[in-house]
Amino acid sequence: MIGLEDFVADNYSKIGNQVLPPGASLGNGLTPEAARDLGLLPGIAVAASLIDAHAGGLGVIGADVRGHGLICEGQPVTSRLAVICGTSSCHMGISKDPIFVPGVWGPYFSAMVPGFWLNEGGQSVTGKLIDHMVQGHAAFPELQVKATARSPD
């Protein structure tokens, strides 16, 4: 309806149709051309990436919490909920089996943690709410002065 037929042509060849799990090795590493452009060595490992919220979610859900006195210590990773905030916010949880919840995105298999199902939901434009909360805090002016003094620019 909006003129994107060329994306689905030839089995999605323009945008790709191979889906790999996060961290899966791609090809034979960095190509000589890419290495030259980036100032790196050819052959450096290249892997399938994650979108920003999923990378944050993986860090929260997969974090080693041993020895910090947290109540989640000793609990399965499927008992954790990651809340990743930026321009928007995203709540993410994983499960061993698919869970279908009306109004919640997913479940998506191996989208964030290989072998687990991901469900997520979020809110747009919550970054402005975070800005408001941070900038409204009593310590914000002092911290802003300190941050500006430490900035190299």
Automatic annotation (TrEMBL):
Annotated ranges, domain Carbohydrate kinase FGGY C-terminal: 81-143
UniProtKB keywords: Kinase, Transferase
Family annotation (Gene3D superfamilies): 1.20.58.2240, 3.30.420.40
Superkingdom in the source lineage: Eukaryota
InterPro entries xref list: ATPase_NBD, FGGY_C
Keyword set includes Lyase: no
Signal peptide limits: none
One GO-annotated biological process of the protein: carbohydrate metabolic process
GO MF terms, alphabetically ordered: kinase activity
Name listed for the protein in its UniProt record: FGGY carbohydrate kinase domain containing
Originating organism: Homo sapiens
